Amino acid sequence: MTEKNLFELIKASDEKAFEILFRMYYEPLVSFCIKYVNDRDLANGLIQEVFVNIWENRKNLRPQQPSPYLYRAAKNKCLNYIRHLNVKHEHHKEFELEESFEEIITDETNDKLVLIYNSIDKLPHQCKRIFIMSRMHGLKHKEIAEELGIAIKTVKNQIGKALKHLKTDLSHLDILLVISILKLFSNKF
User: Fold this and answer.
1) Domain boundaries, the chain
2) Which of 17, 67, 159, 162 has the most CB within a 10 Å radius?
3) Top-level CATH class of 3-90?
């Protein structure tokens, strides 16, 4: 029996031929796989998956030399595993980055946030209300005007006054930082 015949027999669901192929290539493939994943147990698992895939997809096997096919399948299995790990690692890093960013924002901006809130509190009642509706709740000028029963021009003027007040009152802070903080913590209003 030639190696090429093994694939033909496996394609015909010959379990003995599959067992011969497994015994011939399992250990060499595990050793080959270890070069990629540096872990014998993991390599064993990946090569077992290669053989399971061969048996499950045996009807689609094309008569060929098993050796190049098996080594290519093992390499692809290892590379797919490594890619999966990299994607998982990237997602984990992004999650950690988001958490640390939130901690930094919370830690570094807490005092600034208090200053901003205090500055907004200094605004006249209607000016403060319009500013919060606009900047914190994201309402459009027309929506604010309709809700409060005032002219759109009044809404624009009040927002302009609020921004001018904040710019003056918080001149020692970076205005872009102030705007960013207001957007980040808009749910606190």
Assistant:
1) 3-90, 122-188
2) 162
3) mainly alpha
The pLDDT score that the predictor gives to residue 183 is 57
Taking alpha carbons only, the member of 121, 128, 151, 135 closest to residue 186 is 135
φ, ψ for residue 57, nearest 5 deg: -110, 25
The span from the CA of 32 to the CA of 50, in Å, is: 13
Q: Could you tell me which residues come within 8 angstroms of residue 7 by beta carbon, excluding any fewer than 6 positions away?
A: 61, 62, 63, 64, 66, 69
Residue 96 burial (C-beta neighbours within 10 Å; 0-12, 13-18, 19+): exposed
Q: Which of 5, 7, 22 is nearest to 59 (CA)?
A: 7
Domain 122-188 has CATH 1.10.10: yes
Could you report the per-residue pLDDT of 93-131, keeping only the tens digit for each?
A: 666 555 555 555 555 556 676 777 788 889 999 998 998
